[in-house]
Amino acid sequence: MMNDKIKKIIAIFLCLFTLDSFSQSNTFSPYSRFGLGTFSNNFSSYYQSIGGASIASLNNVYVNPSNPASYSLIQPKKFIFHTSLKNNTTFLESSSENEVYNNAQLSSLIFGFPINNRIGFSSGFLPYTHSGYDLFERDVEFEADKFYKGTGGLSKLYFGTSFKVSKSLSIGANASYLFGAINREKRIIFDDESIFHSRSIERVNIKGYDYEIGLLFKNEINQNDLSLAIVLNSQSNISSKRFELLESFEFTGFSEQVKDTFVNLTQRGELTLPQFISFGLSYKLKNLNFIGEYSIQDWSNYQLFGQTDDLINSEKLNIGIEYYNQNSNSTSYLSKVKYRFGLYNFQTPIQLNNNKINETGLTLGIGLPNQRSRTIYDLSLLFGRRGTTNDNLIVENFVEIGLSINFDAIWFIKRKYD
Q1: Could you read off the pLDDT of 280-324 as tens digits, one per residue?
Q2: Is the N end or the C end of the chain the one with fewer CB atoms within 10 Å?
Q3: Please, are residues 131 and 153 in contact by the beta-carbon 8 Å criterion?
Q4: Where do the domains of the chain lie?
């Protein structure tokens, strides 16, 4: 029988399930104008604090949707619920000015449990991409101001399971429902008031399914745990619908009066999401855990309604380390705290004026256990940098603070009566 604590956890999950937090714009980045937007850094403060490396993790206290093969690591009779919050402050720097933006978001809701000694299950909401920008450009030739604005983003609801083939090998798969909308608006305001201004509005709704498989191999070398992991996501074609409006207008006082409508159409098409593959390695040495990950994605095959945005292949390298005290007999609270550090380098799929837009980050974090329960509070701090000021481009320096709460409870335990 499921205990009261599990019921409360599920109630929280169902309440938050109704929120549309995941499909909202939770970023301000000029580079989110391209492709599907900027990618979410990580779904958990735990994994973010070790540089974002996750697929080779052998930690059975956390649910790890980055590698579906990991669900079989969850111990019997356990129910794990995980949620995360983030606050991001971005400092934009160009050759002419600086700006600061801040936003907060609910970044994940996930849970997992074992079905039996060999099969594990997990489900939840994860952010995928974010689009948010408000840009200005002066057109000297046509004596006009151009304004570009974008909002929205994509999220996914996933269901995954894994099977423990042997003591050393597990396989798993995730089926994800990708959903959300990307909104883009462009306005041209002419200096000459005798010329009608123009604006274009585009909204793309994306809804469809995506699949990935994972392998996790673990072994012992001199009584130290070693793991190798592979996660593969094949190319997917996802259903999309686009609304497009192009019209001219003039200002009447503080309002805008439409003069002509040139385009007003709705069409259906596809999003081609390119293949993704990731390789991971972890090694536990006494009271240290080392973890690394390398991933590539062929964004040259990306298309949305036939548009490619001239994207290039992306590559990402994540490295992290975790330290903890192995002395389980110690009564000191500090001896139970875990300390983490990580680095990552991400070559994004964006290239502008022959400048590859790279992102680098340094991460720190700690894990704070609740001594009265199995709950763990994870705090992470990310210092990141994206872009360049070459050729009048923009550099984004950002600081991201994360908090994750990991509930670990026991279920299906029969009550005992005297």
Answers
A1: 999 999 889 999 999 999 999 999 998 888 999 999 999 999 998
A2: C
A3: yes
A4: 4-410
